[in-house]
Amino acid sequence: MWLYLAVLLLAIISIAPWGYVNKGVEISSIDQNLSQETGLSQGDIIKYVNGDEIKNLEDYSNVINKIFSSEGEKRIEVKTTTKEFVFLSTSIPEIVVKDIEKTKIRTGLELKGGARALVKPEKELTDQEMINLLDLTRQRLNAYGLKDVQIKEASDLSGNKYMLVEIAGATPSDLESLIAQQGKFEAKIGNETAFIGGNKDITSVCKGDARCEGIRECNEITEGYSCRFEFGITLSGDAAKKHASITSNLSESIENPGYLDQKLDLYLDDILVDSLLVSIDLKGKEATDIAISGPGYGVDEQEAYDNAQDNMRKLQSILITGSLPVKLEIEKIDSVSPILGKEFTRNILIAALIALLVVGLSIFIRYRKLKLTLAIICMMLSEMIILLGILALFKSNIDLAGIAGIIASIGTGIDDQIIMVDSAESHKQYSVKERIKRAFFIIFGAYLTVLVAMLPLFTAGAGLLRGFALTTIIGMTVGVLITRPAFGDIISKITKD
Amino acid sequence: MTDEIINEKKPEVNKEKRKINWEAFHDKHYIKLMFIPIVILILALIYLAVFYFANGDIMHKDITLTGGTILTVNVNEKIDTNKMTSFLESKLAGKDVSIRTMKNIYSGNQIAISIESNADSDLIKKAVEEYGIKLEEGKYSIEVTGSTLSKSFGKELLIAVAIAFIFMAIVIFILFRVPIPSLAVIFAAFTDIIVTLAVIDLLGVKLGTAGIAAFLMLIGYSVDTDIMLTSRALKGKDSGLKLNTRLFSAIKTGFMMTWTSIAVTLIGYFVLVSPVLKQVFLILSIGLFVDLIATWLGNLSIIKWYCKKKKIN
Fold first, then answer.
1. Is position A417 within any domain?
2. Which domain holds residue A47?
3. Where would a tag sit more exposed on chain A, N or C end, judged by fewer CB atoms within 10 A?
4. Are A466 and A155 in contact (CB under 8 A)?
């Protein structure tokens, strides 16, 4: 009984529902330079900005917009839960904030919205190659601006290896190419490669700075609109030398006076993205600053602009991280809209409430004992709390399959309690303890069968149903080890009365 | 006979008679009752065999097991699904299209539609936009499964169910250590799975990955009443209670267990909007009904026969 109460308490602490009382916004991502400059970091909770209290996301954006409603350098004072930070900025600081999580329970893809991709490398990878692939993919997605990303290796019963990528929240529509594109970038002049993607040739890529990146021009074309993006990169010394030696052999173009007669062709995975004219001034020069450009198309100007912006961010991410070691094939890609996820969550809570009422009522009608009915309902609720607490503790995501698992374990929980109550009420010639002990044989037997039935799901189908198996097993283990014995104590007391 | 009714504290004469009749009836006919689940099981197996020869598989599979795209989009106005299906079919020539709607349980309004097709996902998106539904970033859900993966996926999950079943059987044998009662439990679980699958096929439900997981849950739900029954029958003999009393008290407990479970799964089926969860709860609801037959007509009769034969009265 004491064990049960202690675990219940720990579970509540682990779920940490303080978010319902605490106010403020949490930094979900912050520009690296800004972080170094100011000392603010991801996870900090902002309470005040320039003296105004920040209760939620809306307050934050109102205050920030008010500060930057006029031009010029602004002084910003940020007060977090622990410290105060002061910095100056001419533009809205690159800090992405979110409302503080109400609890530590992590909801999965189907409930919160987000994307999941199961990717299979074209050839079998060694462990080291797999680690490299996971690393590169993480870097690339982070470089694109996706921060809440989980990437792990998965395998199935037949021994196939996969990469499983999960991204929380809203996701870009062209996620497929962002993940699976090998991203072999080559800049060629004629047939010679001048430089390639990755940090060997490219030391830095301009990103998020309007002075060296942006959408430069939009034009109407025969089928809709086309916009051009442009951003700067810095070449390494070696790449610049190579670039110089290639251009030194070229001469001025006849069609385009002022430019060289060969263009700088940009290829991504062997497909020509753009051809750039190279100014005659650069002939034979070791230029390290190069502008990269490319197009985006759309039926209207806005769409073309957005596409150009997307393409730019994708190319930037690829240039920063370089190409992936193997070609990848997307086997499964799911993306769930956050709106639909919200609808699902609400719906599930309502269903759970109705189920609780119906079960409670059934038990009351059957046994006609209010105390007992309340005890069973309390046990069901506390079992759910403990299960959620454990899941929060292990930072495991609860998805739709996980919810099915929770229901499965609560369902067997009720069954077990009915067995215990019935055992306690019959076989009166034994002590209550003895009767409950007999009930435990049944409960433990049922527990073992479900436990072994769930085991194959850990690897079958690349482990996509592992969440289901895990929640069921944890839930039932909690039941057998903690809540059922406590319930035994409770019935002993109730039956004695 | 009266001393057999221990649970009834103050038995009224009338009630007592009915009870006795029940037990006498059961004593007389329990062997025949056993044949009901056996006949149902045989019918289900025949149906599945016919189904297999007709369709080349033992179940209808949805996109998650055959490969393809499921596109779910929120809608504000009512969509005529028949009209939309034929529009999409004409656009995606030669490909299957099916549309499901999700309704708000209170107002009955459509909140979202779910389009399933084995056509290329980009083509589907284009066709849906041509129909006049705008797909804004972050406001629709899309699930794309490659056909090679989904095939191996389906195979692996079926293997998982088979392994789970074998594991379960081993645990049952270890628990009871006597062959016939253990086989009775396993037989009940087997009946439950096969008959439920046949009913699902009969209803034309297309199974997805979560649906197969539901069959795994069913193994768990199915055996706990069987374990309860078997252990009451076999291990309760030293309690001094007669066999029929033990069995009938097990029936009482078991019906209560299954009733609460069915109540929850039916609520789940009718209240939830997520098609994935709806399917899980449909399978569990059917499975639990089948379990009532398999356990209380099949397993009960076998264990009663066994106890009488072995004189475990």
1. yes
2. 19-99
3. C
4. no
Residue B238 has a pLDDT of 67
- For residue B307 the two structure tokens come to 């106890």
Those residues of chain B that have pLDDT short of 50 are: 1-13, 15
pTM above 0.80, yes or no: no
Q: Which residues of chain A have pLDDT under 70?
A: 19-20, 169-174, 427-430, 461-462, 496-497
The CATH code of the domain that includes A409 is 1.20.1640.10
The DSSP element (H or E) to which A232 belongs, if any, is strand A224-235
- Give tens-digit pLDDT for A322-344: 778 788 888 888 887 777 777 77
- Please answer whether residues A184 and A158 qualify as being in contact, where contact means their C-beta atoms are separated by less than 8 angstroms: no
Is residue A493 within 8 angstroms of chain B, CB to CB? no
Chain B residues in contact with A470 (beta carbon < 8 A): none
ipTM of the prediction: 0.81
- Percent of chain A with pLDDT strictly greater than 70: 96
Based on C-alpha coordinates, what's the Rg of chain B?
24
Handedness of CA B147, B152, B156, B158 (dihedral sign): positive
* Pair B298, B38: CB distance under 8 Å: yes
φ and ψ of A259, to 5 deg: -125, 165
Q: Cβ separation of A461 and B148 shorter than 8 Å? A: no
What residue ranges in chain B does DSSP mark as E strands?
A: 60-61, 68-74, 97-103, 110-117, 140-145, 206-207
| Superfamily for the B68-145 domain | ACT domain (3.30.70.260)
Distance, in Å, from the CA atom of B94 to the CA atom of B80, rounded to the nearest integer, reads 21
Of A420, A410, A385, nearest to A494 by C-alpha is A420
Find chain B residues with C-beta within 8 A of A362's C-beta.
Answer: 256, 259-260, 263
**Closest residue in B to A349 (Cα–Cα):** B272
Pairing verdict, β A264-268 and A84-89: unpaired
| pLDDT score, position B28 | 84
Whether residue A366 lies within 8 A of chain B, CB to CB, comes out as yes
Residue located via tokens 């529902």: A17
3-state helix, strand, coil in chain B (%, to 5): 70, 10, 20
Terminal Cα-to-Cα distance of chain B (whole angstroms)? 14
Q: Are residues A389 and A457 in the same domain?
A: yes
